[in-house]
Amino acid sequence: MAFNSLRFILFFSAFFVLYTWVLSRLRVKWRNLGILLASYLFYASWDWRFLSLIIISSLTDYLVGQRLGKIQNPKRRKGLLLISLCVNLGMLGVFKYFNFFRDSLVVLLAYTPFQPSIPTLDLILPVGISFYTFQTLSYTIDIYRKRIQPTSSVLTFFTFVAFFPQLVAGPIERASHLLPQFERKSILSYQQSVQGMRIILLGFFKKIVIADNFGLLADYLLNPALPQNGWLTLTGSFSFCLQIYGDFSGYSDIAIGLAMMMGFRLNQNFDTPYFSRSLTEFWRRWHISLSTWFRDYLYIPLGGNRKGKFRTYYNLFLTFLLSGLWHGADWTFVIWGALHGILIVVERILPSFKRKAIWILPVFITVWFLWIPFRAEGIHHYFHMLAGLFNLASYDLTGMAFVSELYPIRKVMALSIISLLYFSWEGFAKGNDLGLSKLATIPRRMVYFLLAIIIFLFINFESQVPFIYFQF
């Protein structure tokens, strides 16, 4: 039940009516129970069997948190934290990484006399497991560090973990920010609901108009079956560059808007990342909830920048390497994370200087090229694209002629202009609603009406395109 499906629109419409007129007026525990049941129903629409994983993770961390709040012995506290880490990362490792490490080990052992028979697991990756695992882990880690106190309500904690607007693709919320909102009565207002709907509308525009159309173009141009062609790789990877931002930031906007309509505040997850003047700045603006998670729970515990330059470089590289692996169980994601890590370290080594606006373009081009391994359908496809990219003889414009079979050139140009205008406007306004709320009433309504018409013209409920980050 993806956000861009008719099922979800009907589901949320019915739930919001119930929430507005009934649940929000009840005591907090009954309101939370209604949200929890709706969240479990939402998640069960993919595969009800995987609800058990969320329940196991939630129950484990609730119990561990309760014990951590009562025990002061350092060894016992470390043991409790280890239980939380083993249960959560163990489930994530089995479902997401077992076959990846198994296949990698088999390839490695093929060059040795040892040829063990290692079975594969026929498992489906549970949607959202990487997101809710990190969210619930941050709770127990923060209690272990004595930064927050454990909640006394199991219902409140379960609702915090399973909150459906951000359950399957974030933002990854901290307990210190979101959990207290489930412990108090939510205040609904007309202005807040309208603002939430504005953000949702803009999120749908990013997803349906920009991301889905450029995604179709990227899939067509980056098909592994096509011959090596530099223009195909350049155009396809640029299309993916726009697709992934529109797709993921669009999801985040919709999640933030849905929560806002219900009286909850989620953290901003994107801050015009393609207007960054360095890769370091890019990662402060892209997928902010994940970047800060790795900073607070991996980079800083490793020593951060407190143990000398070389240790800082090592910590940075390892953090980005593991961040790449978090995104997917494939060597292409490891390469993507490693490349970012290397370039971030290079930025640290180079003399610091004031980066002016002229740096936005080279940084964007760097990020654009770094998306190539992320988009590749395996390591062989990545090298296939690289071969075309660096082979000057492959830059044959006749190889691009068939693009018009998918999209007429005028449609590609129109879509590109719309996207560039949108992102430029977003970069100037730097806000979820693009500053539209500051416009006079009539112009503002005209803009939203126009956006709604464009979305309606592009949307296809019969074959909606899934969100990219659902696979992570």
Please tell me about this protein's structure.
With 472 residues, this protein is an all-alpha fold. Helix content is 67%, strand content 0%. It has 18 helices and no strands. The chain is globular.
Helix/sheet category: mainly alpha
Individual helix count: 18
State the distance separating the first and last CA atoms.
16 Å
Shape: globular
Outline the biggest β-sheet: none
Short description:
By secondary structure, the protein is an all-alpha fold.
Any descriptors?
472 residues; mainly alpha; 67% helix; globular
Task: Chart the SSEs and their pairings.
Layout: H1 6-21, H2 28-47, H3 51-68, H4 74-109, H5 129-144, H6 154-162, H7 175-182, H8 190-221, H9 230-261, H10 279-285, H11 288-299, H12 309-327, H13 331-349, H14 360-375, H15 379-389, H16 403-406, H17 409-429, H18 441-458
Helix pairs in contact: 1-2, 2-6, 3-4, 3-5, 3-6, 4-5, 6-7, 8-9, 8-18, 9-14, 9-15, 11-12, 12-13, 13-14
